[in-house]
């Protein structure tokens, strides 16, 4: 039996918060008045939770009190396999689902999580992150943090995916830098369930995620501890990260993919610009009645060939058959997303019948102008416009 193909970004990230099912949407509309009342009430209670968490020192009593108060806010934290937790392990590895994963795990055990790609600020501290200076110094700073001899030791909770997914289909590729800190890590799995609406949306801010968490009746975070994993002899950081990713994915019943945060950014970019999406590019293939698909494909390929004459025609047709959009195919070819061997256009140019210069110049300048405009609307950064 062949293994199932890895899911694409459209299955790892939810783009819509509201349910598509009519019955669930009706239930959400009926629940909305109650949800708004809970939202207002929980906002005031949330201020007290924040003050209590700041006032009490880190201890078992503080975690119990804050965990109980969070349950009133609708944030329920559960754990399995707590006996597997090894207090000697200083690096905890988890999958990433919501912006509040580190807060939930911190209700179960003492841990610290650095906030990546963000300068130290009051918001960073208030959200429960450990303040770090710069990404280039991150690994060395975390190594010094783990090597400290203070008691009791505070482990690090790291999310190698670096971006949150919907937690249903698969995992992003684990970055290797968290596995360069120490040779022993303890993985844990995190599953989040919420009624009526999606757990997380790809382009939502942490503020909107917090408001939705307070709006819905409850959100259940299920944490499952796994056995510590030690680096094998001669195993590099990449291999170590891949092995832990497969272990976490197997425990969750999901697939470990090779997608990265850059793929998520590209997926969000295409969602924000629907005209780049193949399914929405209605202008590329006009509806019937009209020319046959083969004729349409040849016509569109010739349009791309005029802009990029050095690209082989069969490569253009193959990508157009997949995207169905001239703009997206040109973007893929210019960005190197499609591999090809450039054609020698010298012979082709010499074989064509010569025409007078006044007829060629307007066409060339027009193509140059159109390509420049296309680059601007696609938000692509080029040092200078392409001259054909």
UniProtKB/TrEMBL annotation:
Q: Does the keyword Membrane apply?
A: yes
The membrane topology of this protein is:
Peripheral membrane protein
Please list which residues make up the signal peptide.
none
Q: Which residues cross the membrane?
A: 23-56
Q: Which UniProt keywords apply?
A: Endoplasmic reticulum, Lipid droplet, Membrane, Transmembrane, Transmembrane helix
One GO BP annotation of this record: ERAD pathway
Q: What is its main location?
A: endoplasmic reticulum
Q: What does this protein do?
A: Plays a role in the translocation of terminally misfolded proteins from the endoplasmic reticulum lumen to the cytoplasm and their degradation by the proteasome. Plays a role in lipid droplet formation. Induces lipid droplet clustering. Recruits ubiquitin-conjugating enzyme UBE2G2 to lipid droplets which facilitates its interaction with ubiquitin ligases AMFR/gp78 and RNF139/TRC8, leading to sterol-induced ubiquitination of HMGCR and its subsequent proteasomal degradation. Also required for the degradation of INSIG1, SREBF1 and SREBF2.
| Name of the molecule in the record | Lipid droplet-regulating VLDL assembly factor AUP1
**Which species?**
Heterocephalus glaber (Naked mole rat)
């Amino acid at each position: 039996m062949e293994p199932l193909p890895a899911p694409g970004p459209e299955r790892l990230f939810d783009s819509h918060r509201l349910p598509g099912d009519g019955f669930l949407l009706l239930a959400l509309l009926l629940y909305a008045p109650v949800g708004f009342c809970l939202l207002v009430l929980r906002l005031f209670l949330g201020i007290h939770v924040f003050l209590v968490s700041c006032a009490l020192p880190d201890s078992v009593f503080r975690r119990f009190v804050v965990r109980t108060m969070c349950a009133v806010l609708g944030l329920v934290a559960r754990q399995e396999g707590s006996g597997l937790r090894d207090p000697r392990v200083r690096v905890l590895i988890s999958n990433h689902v919501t912006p509040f994963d580190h807060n939930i795990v911190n209700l179960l055990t003492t841990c610290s999580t650095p906030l990546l790609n963000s300068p130290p600020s009051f918001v960073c501290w208030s959200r429960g992150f450990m303040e770090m200076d710069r990404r280039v110094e991150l690994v060395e700073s975390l190594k010094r943090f783990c090597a400290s001899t203070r008691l009791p030791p505070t482990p690090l909770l790291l999310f190698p995916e670096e971006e949150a997914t919907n937690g249903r289909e698969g995992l992003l590729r684990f970055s290797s830098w968290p596995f360069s800190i120490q040779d022993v890590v303890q993985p844990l799995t995190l599953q989040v369930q919420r009624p009526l609406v999606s757990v997380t949306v790809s382009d939502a801010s942490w503020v909107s995620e917090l408001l939705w968490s307070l709006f819905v009746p409850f959100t259940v975070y299920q944490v499952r501890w796994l056995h510590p994993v030690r680096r094998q002899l001669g195993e590099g950081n990449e291999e170590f990260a891949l092995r832990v990713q497969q272990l976490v994915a197997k425990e969750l019943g999901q697939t470990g993919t090779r997608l990265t945060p850059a793929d998520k950014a590209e997926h969000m970019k295409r969602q924000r610009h629907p005209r780049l999406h193949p399914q929405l590019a209605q202008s590329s293939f006009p509806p019937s009645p009209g020319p046959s698909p083969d004729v349409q494909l040849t016509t569109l390929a010739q349009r791309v060939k005029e802009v990029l004459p050095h690209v082989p025609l069969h490569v253009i047709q193959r990508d157009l058959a997949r995207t169905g959009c001239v703009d997206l195919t040109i973007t893929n070819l210019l960005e190197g997303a499609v591999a090809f061997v450039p054609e020698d256009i010298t012979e082709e140019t010499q074989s064509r019948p010569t025409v007078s210069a006044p007829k060629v110049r307007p066409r060339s300048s027009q193509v140059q102008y159109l390509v420049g405009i296309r680059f601007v609307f696609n938000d692509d950064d080029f040092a200078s416009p392409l001259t054909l």
